[in-house]
Structure formats: structure tokens, C-alpha cells
Amino acid sequence: MQTPEPYQPASIFTPQAGDGAATPRVLIAPQRYIQGPGVIDNIGRYLTLVNVRRVAILISDRGRASEGPRLLSSLESENMEAVLCRFGGETSVEEIELHQAELDGRVDCLLAVGGGKCVDAGKSIAFRLGIPVVIVPTLASNDAPCSAASVLYSPSGVYSHFEFFPQSPALVVVDTGIVAAAPERYLAAGMGDAMATWYEAQACLKNPNGINVLFARPTLASTAMGEICARTLFEHGVAAATAVRSRNVDASLEAVVEANTLLSGLGFESGGVAVAHGVAQTCTSLPGIPERYHHGEMVAIGTLVQLALEERRDETAKVARFFAHVGLPAHLGQLSVDTSDTAAMDTLVEGTLDWPFTVNMPFDVDASMLRRALLEVQEIGASVASEVGDTAYRRLQDG
Ligand SMILES: [Zn+2]
User: Which of 120, 131, 140, 243 could form a disulfide with 150 if both were Cys (CB 3.0 to 4.6 A apart)?
Assistant: First the structure.
């Protein structure tokens, strides 16, 4: 079993000494993005585009019971063989290497079927095996499916590091019927993750030295995706959440699933990330938080912190109001962070300053500015929450 050298996009896209070039604009994307109710039943047909015969399916026990039979019957109808592998739940090096050893030399494609953690683990395993990865998200809770990067965590869920891959997923197949049947909290978390996209892309574009996740300059196209992503959420977010409550696939749900998965995914990777994701990743090191909250819920708070840092009070309140309406945390208290807890505040400030993409902000960020922004989010968010009420937040957290 041979593990390839880690791939660093900077080694490809960052101008080398002496070549005199400016940092280029780079956009990457999966080869195909397919979304609609029932598309999972055609997975075998779509896979004929990738030219494979033996397919590993990385899936949890729950997913195996619910989506397994449909996947297997579609693969069988195209005479493809399937090897099922049980996803244990965490995107850790331990889990990834276990599956790498199990699958080495046995398959020519890997299908990752599940939420963000399974999707990211699938990308890392496929990279180590040197085979294409196909992503079948069963939740619209995160922006992981479309990117050529994974976020790795310790076995207990604390953020560890990024892994990058030279290839984007060959296919991303999102069955909106499956997404609509998942608990509403997942869709809301995806909206929290997606809302950051536009604000982070703006920061990277404004900063002449801002770089995207490929260590290249953002394109106008990726920034435009971030903008339409935010606009779609404001327009359809509440209606999409209502659709999921009645397990109904309607136009609003289709729009929000595309925003959460495609627009947010391409937008963050090629448009760039900044303080919003820095705060979110740092939240995973606060005791009790990674077990209780989703990535997108932490990104929601991170987005508010970034807006407060930019001194955009009105926009902070507007976004916090949207979060309160769809049941996302609108202030730090709703993420179980007590702003009078000095140790927690110090961790948040220091972790965000250490985050490699905080430098994408179009101004220098220091500890006192971050501290002020965190307190301001608490103040603005709490006032919004008392105005809107916490019915939606409670419903999702207690449900
Ligand atoms: Zn994210």
C-alpha cells in the first residue's frame, strides 16, 4: 500500500521565484453536478461517464439501510460490482487509512454517500487509492461535496488540518428527495455554511493579496456564485425549511439545496474563505461544542463575527435576523459560548488569528478587534433573537 505525497495547490498556482508572473485567477469544479428528486436511482447510468466496473461505497449503517438498496440495484443494472464499506463517523486519519488498507487494489472508483464528514473522508480515501471519487450527499448541511479538499479532524472531532487533491469529484449527485426527508436542522446548518460564502468571497476579492483555497486569485465567476448564493438564501431559505418540515420537494427547496451544495461549494473553494470559517474551525476546540453543533451552525456565528469585524452593523443584524428565522444560532449564547468566559474568548481570538485564511481580510486583524467583534455579535444577535423569538432555534435544537 503506497500513500501519495500530499498535494499542495500552492506548488502549482503560486508564482515561482523568477517567473515574474502575478498570482493567476483559478476556478475549479466537479466534472458534473446533478440534482433532482430520485436521481440516486440513475447512479449506475451516470457512472458510465466515469468508466468504472468495481465501485466502493463508503456509507454509514443508517445510510446503508435507507439508500443502500437503491444504489446497489442501479449499479447492478449497469453490471457494476459494489464493495460496501462502513463509515464510522469521523473524518480522521485513522478512519481514512483503515479504508485505504481495506480497498487497496480492489476498486476503480469510490462513492461517498452521506453527510459532510463521510464526503470528506471519501475524497481523502480516493486520493490515497488514486481513483476518482463520486459524491452522493444525503444532506444539504455543508459545502463539502463539490470541493477538491477535505477538512480533517481528530477522532474526537477537533479540527486538525486541510487536505487538498489534484482532482475534483468526478460527479456530484444530489437527490433532493433524500435531502427533503432529513431533519430540518441539517438544511438550516447548510444555510449557515452557505451564507458565509458571499461575505468571505467579498473579503478575498477586495484584498489585492487575497487568495482562494487553491492559493490563487478568485475569479469574477466564483464571486458571482457567492452573491447569488446569499440572494437565494434570503429569498427561499424560510420556504425551503417549511418544505423540509413537510418532506416536500418544491422550487424553494431545489433552490436552497443548490445554494448550499453547488454555489456554496464552488464559491468557498474558488472564491476564498476568511474569518467566518476561522471562527467556526476554532469553535471545534471549545469543550462540548463539536459534539453539540453542526459545522454550519458554527459558520453562522463566524459569519456574524466577520461582519461585525468589518463594522457592518446593519448587515450583521440582517443576517442574524435571517438566522433566527431559520433556526440557526444568532448569537454566541445560542452556540453555548459564554462571552464572560475569558478562556473561551481567548481560544476563539487566538484560534481565529492563527487560521491561515484570516489574512484574506482586506485590513489587518488583531486580537482586540476580534474581541470587540465577538462581543458585538452577542449584543446584536441577542437583541435580534428577542425581537424574532427563538421558536425556530428551539424547534431545531430540541427536535
Ligand atoms: Zn464550510
Answer: 120
